[in-house]
Amino acid sequence: MTINNLPTLTTPRLTLRRFSEQDGQQIFDNYASDPMVARYVTWNAHTSPEQSRQLAKAFHDGSFGAYQWAIVLNQTGQLIGNISLVETDAEEKNGMFGYVLGQKWWNMGLATEALTETLRFLFEECGFETITGEYAILNPASGKVMEKCGLEFVRQDVKLVPAKNKQVDIIVRRITRDRWYQINRKELP
């Protein structure tokens, strides 16, 4: 898979699509400039729209890998976050995801909806074997999203976050392809 053939995924309320170079202002306005949003992620809040424009270009160009989706509300067309594989092991068919939503769209089930569709695509269409996620212990809402999507507890750990120059206590969760098919009552191909 390359960024050029990344498919658009849809759910009842969301479209997960490839970033465009024009997405920078919405990234800045809707989530990246908010210190509350950046509190539990590995990057610091953006201080200028130019930072978000550069990020949109890097996402669009595939600088961070092929699996980088903008999360867009179907009803308004507004870009409200992103979901992506932040690490992949193509040989083993494993990946680690990350996601972020603007604060205005928290606690609406949108992260769960986006992650559910992303997992479906990765397991059913790409043949991934294991998908992992991690979240800061101080952000239990993210853990609930992962739990709802079937990710099981693996371990508690400490992670150095260079952008924030600190160590963060995290929880690691994981789901296998077999478990995905089991909880979604589907037969393995």
Summarize the structure in short.
This protein is of the alpha+beta class and 189 residues long. It contains six helices and eight strands.
Task: Give structural notes.
- With 189 residues, the chain is an alpha+beta fold.
- The chain has one domain (3-183): 3-Layer(aba) Sandwich (Aminopeptidase), CATH 3.40.630.30.
- 31% of the residues lie in helices and 32% in strands.
- Helix 1 crosses helix 3.
- The protein is globular.
The level of helicity is 25-40%
At the fourth level of CATH, the homologous superfamily is: Gcn5-related N-acetyltransferase (GNAT)
CATH architecture descriptor text: 3-Layer(aba) Sandwich
Number of domains: 1
Tell me the number of strands.
Answer: 8
What is the name of the CATH topology?
Aminopeptidase
- Would you list the SSEs in sequence order as H and E? EEHHHEEEHEHEEH
Number of helices: 6
CATH C-level class is Alpha Beta
Low-confidence regions: none
Q: What is the overall shape?
A: globular
What proportion strand?
Answer: 25-35%
Structural class: alpha+beta
Instruction: Give the end-to-end Cα distance, rounded to a whole number of Å.
Output: 20 Å
Main β-sheet, in a few words? Answer: 8 strands, mixed
**Which strand order spans the largest sheet, edge to edge or round the barrel?**
1-2-3-4-5-6-8-7
